[in-house]
Amino acid sequence: MAALLLPGRTDEPTARALQRALLDEDDIEVPITSWPVRAARSPGDGPTIRLIRISAQRYNEPADFDRLADTLGRRLAAE
Q1: Most CB atoms within 10 A, among 14, 37, 42, 62?
Q2: What does the alpha-carbon distance between residue 66 and residue 36 come to, in Å, rounded to a whole number?
């Protein structure tokens, strides 16, 4: 398992929209979150970074990660 920094806007709606688009349009299920999480922030502070968490399982193949990287590159360039 690894958490990777994603460039671009860090707000929760943007993170949720990217995660939803990956699932609905690209059939890729991967958690994307803003950090620090709301419960760990001071009132009025926003998130500072956006993370994607990938987890390798026995059923994953290198091509799955290549597809995720290509799709993320395309989606992040469009933001």
Answers
A1: 14
A2: 27
> Phi first, then psi: what are they for 16, rounded to 5°?
-65, -40
- Residue among 41, 62, 56, 63 at smallest CA distance from 4: 56
The CA distance from 73 to 4, in Å, is: 13
CA separation for the pair 33, 50 (Å, rounded): 6
Q: How far is 15 from 35, CA to CA, in rounded Å? A: 10
Q: Is 7 within 8 Å of 77 (Cβ atoms)?
A: no
Determine contact, residues 43/1, Cβ cutoff 8 Å: no
